Each structure stands twice: as C-alpha cells, then as structure tokens.
C-alpha cells in the first residue's frame, strides 16, 4: 500500500474492518442465505424462468461502478459484463440445485478463516504476514450489532457471495472433471491415427484458373447453400443494419484560432500576478494547479525540456498540447531529493473521502503536541506509534515508510519531508489530521519545479455545432425513404456509410464509437425509417434502417459474405470437371489442366495439410483410403481446386507407442472441456433479455 493511499484510506479501513466482521458474524450465526432481495415489477430478463429484477440488478451495478469506475470502466460496459455474470450465476445455480451441491456454514467458516480467506488483508499481521484468525473470531462476538445495511450489503456482494459462488463452481467443475473417461478402443484409435502416414501422387486444377468475374453467385445459389448447411448459419438474436451519413461538429479552424487568441490575451496578466492559484481559479483551467514541486523526470508534459529552462516568474507558450492550448508559468525551483524515508505518528481527525469526523480538531492537536513533547523528552517513538497512531499502514512498523517518490503524499506532508533536512522533526497538519514527522533519509538531489498551467481545450463553438445540426436536420427532412436518402447523400456530397450486425444491447456501432442512444432508436423503429439527427461523438448522424434480420437462419444478404467464396468455388469445380479436366490417368488429367503430376509424402492423418497446397481435409481423407492404393480416385472438390489422387502408400510409421501418454493427453483435454461447459449451459438455456428496454 502506498503512503498516500495509506493515509487516505485510514478512516475507511477502520469502518471496513468493523463492517466485515459484523457481516461474518451475521453469516456464521444465521447460515448461508441466498436471494431474498425485494423486487419491483420491472423484470430485466428471465433465465429458464428465473427472473432478474431491475432493482437487484441496479444495486449490483452501482456497486460495480464504485469498484471499477475509477479504473475507467464505463457504465455501458459494466451493464454487459454484469448481465453475463448474472446469466452464468443463474444457470450454474440451477445445475447446483439439480445435483444437490451446497456450501454449508462450516465450509464457509473454514474458508473465511482459512489460508484462502477473502479477508486475509484486513486481518494480517504486517510484521509477520500471519493471518490473525483468533483476532477475527474474537471480534465477531463484539461486532454483531452493526445496523448499516448498505455497507453490509456491499461487503456481502464483494467478498462473501463471490466466495460462495467460487466454492460452488469449483465443486461443480470437479464433478465434471472426475467424470472424464477414455475407453481403451479410443486410445488405440488415437494411437493408430497419430502413427498413420501416407504418400500420394495427384493432379490438380486450380480454381484460380477461372476468373471470379466470370462466375456469378446468385441469391438462389446462396439460399440453396444456406438451406443445406443451416446449422452453420443460425443466429441466436436479431440484428439490424443501417446506412448513415455524418455531419462534422468538431472544432473548426476558426474555433481553434479564437481560443488561441483568448489564451494569448491572458498571458500578460498571468505573468504579472503573484497569486497563480487564484488567477487560474478566476479564468479557469483544464489542468488543476498542483501547488508543489516535481522533478523533470516526474513531469508528463510533452515539451518539458523547454519548460524547465524558463526563468522563475516567466511564461512559456502558448503551445499546443494535444487538443488544448497551454500557457506554462514557472513559479519556483528548488533542489529536492527524488525520494525520502520518514517515520510518523498520525492523530486522525477526519476522513475527507467520507466527510466523517473522527475526533475534534482541538483534541487531535493537544494529543499530537503531547506526543511531540514526549519524543523530544526521549520517549520511544515506536512505542508511541504503536499506541497512538491511526495509520494502519505504518503503526506496526514503528511509523516508518521506506523511500517514496515526490507526489505520493498529500501536499503539506510531501512538502515538509522533501523541503527539510534529514533529522528534522515537526508537527504537520493535513486534511486527515495531525502528523508528527521525522525525516530519516533522502537521496538523489536534483532541481524540482513548481509550474502553473493555464490550459483550455479546443472545443466547438455554438456556431459550429449549430451549423452541423442544421445541415443534418435539413438532410433528414429531405430523406424520407431509401431512394431519397441515397439521392440526398449524393446531392450534398456525403459518403454513405454502413453499420451492420447491430444488436439490441450494443453500446456502439462499428466505425462510429459510443452510440447507445442511436442503437436504442434503431430498435424502436422499423426498416426504412429515417432518424432525426443523433449526436454521436463530434458528429451529427442521420441514419436509415436498411434491414431487420430476425433471429434464426440468416438471410441471404447476411450469409453471402460468409459463404459466397465457397459457393463460387463449387461452381468453378463443376466448370473444371465438366469442360476442362479430361483423361483417365494422372498424367492425362494434369495435362488437360495445364499442370503436371505432383507428389506429397509423409502426410499425417491428424494434420490435414498438403505441403505447398494448404489445408485439404478431403484429400488427406482420400490418402488414407486403402481402397485407393495404386488406383486413381474420382475427381475431388478440394479447398483450392479439383484433385485426382493416387495413393502410393499408407501405413503406420515405425516407433514406440506411448499409450499411457496418449491417455493422459486425452483425459486432460476432456477435463479442460469442463471449463467450456458453461457455454453449453447458456446456449441450452431459455433466456429472455429485456435490457434494451431499460438501458
């Protein structure tokens, strides 16, 4: 845990420990209980008849936003991942119930207080790394009476429920894995396949010898192929496609120039002011003023080499940083170490993150003053720290934090320990309370800089946005059907773009970025409908729904990109066989195709590849057909052309067969398939997904 995080989390850590222990007591006392949440009459979905209620879903979603929002996870992403988690949880729970798999209270207790406890971090001795089981158990009886339902629910969802779920899943997967069995005949068959090799001679006529443009693939051809291979063209959910045009509302050159002139107008006043922080607060800046110092190595500005050379009190810029114009003012330069080690005692008065007051400020100040006097009088620092410090990250270590870099502490603490000499001691006040600090060591001194940045992003003016919106609205008004939509796009010189395979719960359309509201519009309207202008990113989009593709067998237009080349190859094969390939020997067949007889040796039954030809499963199958040994096969439609094959030999290669190894490999593969069983359960489940009606 970093120094700054330790200080910031101090108050929350105490509360967390109390809530966690209270929850454990609650669960151990009352046994494992699942469900029981209140629901409203809005059902987000059903899994094999079991409802996912929106209220319960929103509770979990809110928790995940708190957990993962700081890491950049978007709400739309979390909705999708949480839905998948809920579907998995329900289909697995239904399997657990069929099999009678449970987690008893004793098992839960063993896990909570065992080596893999989810609460180890909260009850681990920082000196020894030992999990303090007895401390946790003793605290249970003292902390049963917690009434904070929200925090209890949070700990339950974050720690307890996932522990139960993982234990149940491990049991279920263990049953599946132990059920794997490989019979002897299968081992012998695999051994024979592994050892089988063949040699062939063949004549070949390539599909590439016929131009694609001469072989037309009709809709009827595609439809016929799809009907014959319908299982390959099944779709589990509806998709829709759109055509659309975009009207750019991104900042114009005029917008950029206007902002540049505005930034220039600030330069003299910014340079003249003695209160950079106040000035930035008055005019506004997109880069928060950091009222402390950083070494050049810690700076993240693209032109820091130039910035560190400007004199104190002067301005660099304006310069372009990404999509922002910036003025940089040098406030001060100091010679600071790049890292410091300290020891401290924290008397906490508040937790700024929660606003909780832990003790009166006056009481905290008196206590830290008493500690200061005691240390100066020769009292043992480590003993005082253990007894009084409210910082869990350091109190068991005598208050010591090893070397840490600039900027990891809150500013008052950071500035004192980097700006004073080794051996200095003082009371430092921060938002968290009072710290008695002693500087133990410093290293690697170098210049550190305090720089104030007046930064403003280049944004679209109202005029730019209005012009784009107006143009999009005029386009939509003049495009009431597909014909007029296309004609209007040509008239205004707009490229017609496509969005395909859009699903009801998609958050974005390929090539467009985040566009959830447009996706909702697409599924609230019918084929041929034209949208009003939709703001997506820095564009206004006008779209027309070009097709609605229902779940089930794909339509011809959907299937064509997937099978058109296959169908074309089949038609080419017929042309080659009917009109080009002649003869009853390999030599005559090769001559009619304009090629020569080729040879392929050491072909493997388990690897369907022919050297220099590629993947050809049908040809490999023929190579191991003993009835073709010394004979010429019928013409075979392969992946890359038409073949005629003569089998020269096929037999088992010499060598020792490791049937035990083969068995273990096959068993391992069978056991690993248990982890893919979840996909089968979800595919076989009856799932009603109403998310698109709510999000």
How does this model look, in words?
This protein is of the alpha+beta class and 695 residues long. It has four domains: 3-178, no CATH class; 193-235 and 556-652, no CATH class; 239-249 and 462-550, Chitinase A, domain 3 (Roll), CATH 3.10.50; 256-457, Roll (Chitinase A, domain 3). Helices cover 43% and strands 23% of the residues. The protein contains 23 helices and 25 strands. Strands 6, 7, 8, 11, 12 and 13 form a six-stranded antiparallel β-sheet that branches. A hairpin with a 3-residue loop joins strand 15 and strand 16 (513-514). Helix 2 (10-30) packs across helix 7 (149-178), helix 4 (75-99) crosses helix 7 (149-178) and helix 9 (219-228) packs across helix 19 (556-580). The radius of gyration is 36 Å and the shape is extended. Residues 1-40 have low confidence and may be disordered.
Which CATH C-level class of the largest domain is it?
A: Alpha Beta
Mean pLDDT: 88
| Euclidean distance between termini CA atoms | 37 Å
Molecular shape: extended
Helix content: 40-55%
Please state the CA-atom Rg, rounded to the nearest Å: 36 Å
- Strand count: 25
Low-confidence stretches: 1-40
Question: Which structural class do you get from the secondary structure elements?
Answer: alpha+beta
**Total domains, how many?**
4
CATH architecture of the largest domain: Roll
CATH topology of the largest domain: Chitinase A, domain 3
Query: Which percent band covers the strand fraction?
Result: 15-25%
Main sheet summary: 6 strands, antiparallel
Per DSSP, the total helix count is 23
């Amino acid at each position: 845990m970093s120094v700054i995080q330790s200080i910031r989390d101090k108050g929350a850590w105490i509360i967390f420990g109390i809530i966690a222990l209270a929850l454990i007591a609650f669960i151990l006392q009352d046994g494992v209980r699942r469900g029981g949440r209140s629901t409203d009459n809005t059902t987000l979905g059903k899994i094999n008849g079991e409802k996912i209620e929106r209220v319960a879903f929103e509770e979990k979603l809110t928790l995940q936003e708190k957990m993962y929002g700081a890491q950049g996870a978007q709400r739309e992403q979390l909705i999708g991942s949480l839905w998948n988690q809920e579907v998995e949880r329900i289909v697995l729970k239904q399997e657990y119930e069929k099999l009678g798999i449970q987690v008893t209270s004793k098992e839960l207790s063993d896990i909570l207080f065992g080596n893999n406890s989810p609460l180890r971090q909260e009850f681990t001795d920082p000196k020894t790394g030992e999990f303090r089981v007895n401390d946790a158990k003793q605290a249970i009886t003292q902390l049963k009476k917690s009434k904070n339902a929200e925090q209890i629910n949070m700990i339950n969802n974050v720690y307890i429920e996932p522990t139960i779920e993982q234990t149940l899943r491990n049991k279920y997967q263990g049953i599946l894995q132990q059920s794997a069995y490989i019979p002897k005949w299968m081992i012998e068959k695999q051994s024979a396949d592994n050892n089988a090799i063949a040699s062939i001679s063949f004549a070949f006529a390539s599909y590439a010898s016929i131009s694609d443009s001469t072989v037309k693939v009709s809709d009827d051809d595609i439809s016929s192929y799809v009907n014959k291979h319908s299982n390959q063209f099944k779709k589990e959910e509806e998709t829709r496609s759109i055509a659309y045009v975009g009207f750019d509302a991104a900042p114009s050159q005029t917008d950029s120039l206007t902002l540049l002139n505005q930034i220039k107008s600030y330069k003299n006043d910014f340079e003249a002011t003695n209160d950079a922080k106040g000035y930035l607060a008055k005019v506004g800046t997109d880069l928060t003023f950091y009222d402390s110092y950083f070494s050049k190595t810690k700076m993240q500005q693209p032109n820091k080499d130039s910035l560190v050379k400007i004199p104190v009190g002067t301005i660099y810029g304006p310069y372009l940083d990404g999509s922002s114009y910036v003025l940089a003012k040098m406030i001060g330069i100091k010679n600071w170490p790049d890292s410091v080690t300290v020891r401290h005692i924290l008397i906490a008065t508040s937790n700024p993150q929660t606003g909780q007051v832990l003790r009166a400020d006056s009481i905290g100040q008196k206590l830290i003053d008493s500690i200061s006097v005691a240390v100066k009088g020769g009292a043992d620092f480590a003993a005082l720290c253990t007894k009084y410090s409210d910082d869990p990250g350091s109190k068991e270590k005598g208050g010591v934090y090893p070397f840490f870099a600039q900027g990891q502490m809150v500013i008052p603490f950071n500035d004192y320990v980097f700006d004073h000499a080794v051996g200095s001691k003082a009371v430092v006040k921060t938002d968290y309370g009072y710290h008695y600090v002693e500087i133990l060591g410093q290293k690697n001194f170098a210049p550190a800089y305090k720089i104030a940045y007046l930064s403003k992003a280049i944004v679209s003016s109202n005029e730019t946005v209005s012009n784009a919106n107006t143009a999009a609205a005029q386009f939509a008004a003049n495009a009431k059907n597909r014909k007029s939509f296309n004609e209007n796009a040509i008239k205004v010189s707009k490229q017609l773009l496509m969005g395909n395979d859009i699903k009801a719960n998609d958050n974005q359309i390929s090539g467009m970025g985040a566009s959830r509201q447009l996706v909702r519009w697409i599924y609230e309207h019918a084929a041929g409908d034209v949208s009003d202008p939709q703001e997506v990113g820095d564009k206004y989009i006008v779209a027309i729904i070009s097709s609605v593709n229902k779940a089930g067998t794909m339509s011809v237009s959907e299937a064509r990109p997937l099978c058109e080349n296959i169908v074309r190859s089949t038609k080419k094969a017929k042309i080659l066989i009917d009109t080009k390939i002649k003869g009853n020997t390999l030599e005559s067949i090769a001559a009619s195709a304009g090629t020569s007889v080729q040879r392929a040796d050491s072909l493997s039954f388990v690897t369907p590849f022919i050297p220099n030809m590629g993947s050809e499963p049908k040809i490999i199958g023929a190579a191991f057909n003993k009835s073709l040994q010394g004979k010429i096969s019928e013409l075979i439609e392969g992946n890359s052309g038409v073949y005629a094959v003569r089998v020269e030999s096929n037999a088992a290669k010499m060598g020792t067969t490791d049937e035990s190894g083969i068995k273990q490999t096959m068993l391992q593969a069978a056991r690993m398939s248990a982890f893919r069983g979840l996909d089968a359960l979800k595919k076989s489940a009856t799932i009603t997904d109403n998310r698109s009606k709510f999000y």
